[in-house]
Amino acid sequence: MIQNNxxxxxxSLSFEVFPPKKDEEFENVYQxxxxxxxxxxxxxxxTYGAGGSRAGKTVEITSFIQKELQIDAIAHxxxxxxxxxxxxRNCAALKEAxxxxxxxxxxxxxxxxxxxxxDQREFHYATDLVQxxxxxxxxxxxxxxxxxxxxxxxxxxxxxxxxKEKVDAGVTSLISQMFFDNEFFYRFLDKARxxxxxxxxxxxxxxxxxxxxxxxxxxxxxxxxxxxLADIIAxxxxxxxxxxxxxxxxxxxQIRDLKEHGVDGIHIYSMNKIKTTTxxxxxx
Length: 284
Ligand code: FAD
Prior knowledge:
Layout: E1 12-17, H1 26-37, E2 43-46, H2 55-68, E3 72-78, H3 84-96, E4 101-105, H4 115-119, H5 126-136, E5 140-145, H6 156-168, E6 173-178, H7 182-194, E7 201-205, H8 211-221, H9 227-236, H10 240-260, E8 265-269, H11 274-283
Parallel strand pairs: 1-2, 1-8, 2-3, 3-4, 4-5, 5-6, 6-7, 7-8
Bound molecules: flavin-adenine dinucleotide.
């Protein structure tokens, strides 16, 4: 079971992976997972394709993590555009696969969804999903949080109020959106604790190893880029290997600082890159 004890001093280590795009790539992802297992993570989570397009693959990957590697697995699930029966089918598949922990997410609105479909969706927010899972399953439930606020929210304060509702609905740990400036995470954590959010919060770290990756990451996550990271891209962006080293060094310094501040957990967005993830872990 994943440690949910806030008195536990050890900073946990965990990874996020994504499922293969094609069936023939499963063995490749399994090998990445076997290598990640050697780094002794406390848990590994697996993403869920937007709109549930690769839902079955998330079940298969988390089942492998749980059953074959005997590591706690967290299956991401989203609810936007899903009916109760879709969810029930997904939960039944997870149960059969031996996966008992989910990251309950709202998800982003699929491009294909009309305004009418969006307004009439069965689950409006992740909190609705958490309530449903809590009432109908025995799943352990984690949730997402945003140190720099969720992009739709008018303020961090309002986002935190909704986060508190999500936690009160039954979330036992949180995984944060990636951030590149630890000060955002510390400020967010202070405010969350003051509001009475006491569950463990795993700090999301995305190693930036190419200039292109930073652009995509920032546009998807909305995370701020500190001058130091922007300078790294300006200096090393054109040199593949130097950029990779500088990106690893930045992530390592971020993680060391977080550990010194006694955070509950470090959650590395591995992007299925085993070499980079292994190097980071050997340095922290
Ligand atoms: P919610 O918690 O529902 O929050 C969404 C917004 O609604 C916030 O602005 C919140 O303040 C607001 N809100 C909440 N409750 C209310 C209310 N009652 N009234 C008004 N406003 C409210 N996406 C995927 O598709 N697949 C993945 O695998 C995936 N993994 C992720 C993993 C992590 C760690 C994170 C941080 C994000 C992940 N996402 C994933 C992205 C996520 O689906 C999006 O960020 C989505 O826009 C929000 O999901 P949520 O569960 O945080 O939503």
